[in-house]
Amino acid sequence: MPKAEVTKHAAAVSFDRKFVRLGLREVAADTNERSLIFSLLPKNCGLGHTLFANAAKYYAPNADGGVQVRPVSTLRCLFAMAWFNSVPADWLARFMIQIHVSKTHLYRLPLPQPSDNEIRANPDYTQLAKNALLLSLSASWHDFAELAPLFDVQPADVPFTAKARDQLRAENDKTVARLYGITTAEFTHLLCSFKGMATKRPEYLALLS
Fold this sequence. Notes:
By secondary structure, this protein is mainly alpha-helical. The chain has one domain (about 15-209). Helices cover about 45% and strands about 10% of the residues. The chain has helices at about 5-10, 75-85, 85-95, 105, 115-120, 125-140, 140-145, 160-180, 185-190, 195-200, 200-209; strands at about 20-25, 40, 50-55, 55-60, 65-70. The chain has a 3-stranded antiparallel beta sheet, covered by helices on one side. The protein has a two-stranded antiparallel sheet with strand order 4-5. A hairpin with a 5-residue loop joins strand 4 (about 55-60) and strand 5. Helix 2 crosses helix 6 (about 125-140) and helix 6 packs antiparallel against helix 8. The relative contact order is 0.13.
């Protein structure tokens, strides 16, 4: 592409740091309490070499021949975060991961890829995404307050105690297990492999039992 053509679209260029992104911790030993650890990343933050982030936006032509920036759906990021952070997804990932996790591992994990409308239309998907948002707002209302209108969340709705946050995480874990078709007996067997969690967070395992 000629330089003049590139320059013409320079105003459309937008850095990823201007968007809320989904981050993944790269260090993921299968002996840790958890292997997959996802989180929303606030705007205007940088990343180290042990933290991955999703592509925050993409470029598309507009009607007048120019280029416009389209952000990746935050609703879909919340849904993906809830699913990847679930115990069942973590259990599956540990068959592939020993020390480090890469996007190649994530591509091999079975999970739905619903559109925004499909998330809104499915009560389970909606609750997964909403719980992920509530947990993010609990971590920092200031950084993610602009996302609260996605589910009409008010400050009073946010879980500010460890027990309340654990209840939301446990709800997501049980929902993902059900959507995977995991039986109660299978889920109990699956939980036995999380030795680190049994030692450090027995109260959380109790919520899943």
